[in-house]
Amino acid sequence: MKDDNFLTENNARHLWHPMGAPADSHSTPPKIIKGAEGVNITDIDGHATVDAVGGLWCVNLGYSNDVVKEAIAKQLYDLPYYSAFAGTSNPPAIEASYAVREFFAEDGMSRVFFTSGGSDSVETALRLSRQYHRLRGEPTRTKFISLKKGYHGTHFGGASVNGNNRFRINYEPLLPGCFHLPSPYPYRNPFNESDPAQLAQNIAAAFEDEIAFQDPKTIAAFIMEPIQGAGGVIVPDASFMKLMREICDRHGILLISDEVITGFGRTGDWSGARHWGVQPDMMTTAKGITSGYFPVGACMVGDKVADVFENDQTGEAAIYHGYTYSAHPVGSAAVIATLAETTRLDLKTNAAARGTQLFEGVQKLAEKYDIIGDVRGGHGLMTGIELVSDKAAKTPMDMATMKKIHEATYQAGSMVRLGAHNVLMSPPLTISEGEVNTILSALDTGFAAA
Ligand code: PMP
């Protein structure tokens, strides 16, 4: 490996980072992570921390799962690549589709379309939903409705249904025909409604109103995360997704559950929708599907949609969509091994227990620090802390202070992630009680530094 000076200098010179300004690499060099073990990561200075980010909400198995690593290595020797475009397939892809389908059968999913990641999966779901309506003889159903604060990746379709404007404004105009409802976010919402159940009712009414205004016959799908992740870990009322499901059904609108973060155990169950007693029409996943070890995503489809494609009489059911790396044999081998390990280790049960510990620990910190405006989580290992400079006025904390907290927390032993004025946490689902305590004590030091 090149020396530290080479790495730092050339990072700033040549490597552009997602979600950052290129010039920032000069003024604020990134932490260069060179190794990892268990749930710990080590930077080039040799500083080790508990990774409360889980890579990027994805390293569910931690960094040391040899079963997955060996499966990937073996597949590289057996068959490193072959296309899965119509006309060819490969054994790991077939086995992986079977494994994914088994995982989400309880959610009503029966078919799997593999992609290279979450944004691809969202794009796939949006396209398939338009094609579904065309095949059914309703080609006017082309519009999409989604939630503010939602994150659905960065392709033009996903960005268009995205509900955080910093992912949108520099890239406009986006896809026409995309409309947004308020987020089920009791701490801040346009209704000034702090009761989550009443807020759910208000958003349901706004959904009905928007559908009537647009004309139901023009709407293809509604997409939401069961728990909004990147928007700040926003947990809706238990009634919310069910209300959305009922409205979608009444108006012939497909419900897409974006489970890129929430799938595969992160929330304390295998899917997010399952917490809310909802079966979506399609689900999008990525991240935990390979624990981040290989870039894979999947769009899953339930029988209602599958039947229309598979019993098509129009001759238009060919899916002219897909990626060179869809159903990649090495990625598929990673999926098979990851899902077997995810089940064997019963990651959802540990996620639920350690998630409660983390959530309650952060709630205790909120009693100590006035800068903590809102603590969100309580469903597995997804925790958000919203920081404010004035608690009564709910003034968002400034970025300079956020960065100071981030650095102090890192130095004290834990990597956390900032999303605007939120601290976001999604550690590996293999994390132990002691390691959660390390995160909590590092956060305590971080908040004290504000
Ligand atoms: N949907 C959701 C809910 C996500 O959280 C993400 C990524 N964080 C995406 C889609 C996009 O996934 P990717 O970054 O793999 O393209």
UniProtKB/TrEMBL annotation:
Q: Where is the signal peptide?
A: none
Q: Does the keyword Membrane apply?
A: no
Please give the InterPro entries that the UniProt record associates with this protein.
Aminotrans_3 (IPR005814), Aminotrans_3_PPA_site (IPR049704), PyrdxlP-dep_Trfase (IPR015424), PyrdxlP-dep_Trfase_major (IPR015421), PyrdxlP-dep_Trfase_small (IPR015422)
What Pfam families does the database record attribute to this sequence?
A: Aminotran_3
Which cofactors?
pyridoxal 5'-phosphate
Q: Which family does it belong to?
A: Belongs to the class-III pyridoxal-phosphate-dependent aminotransferase family.
| Protein name as catalogued | Taurine--pyruvate aminotransferase
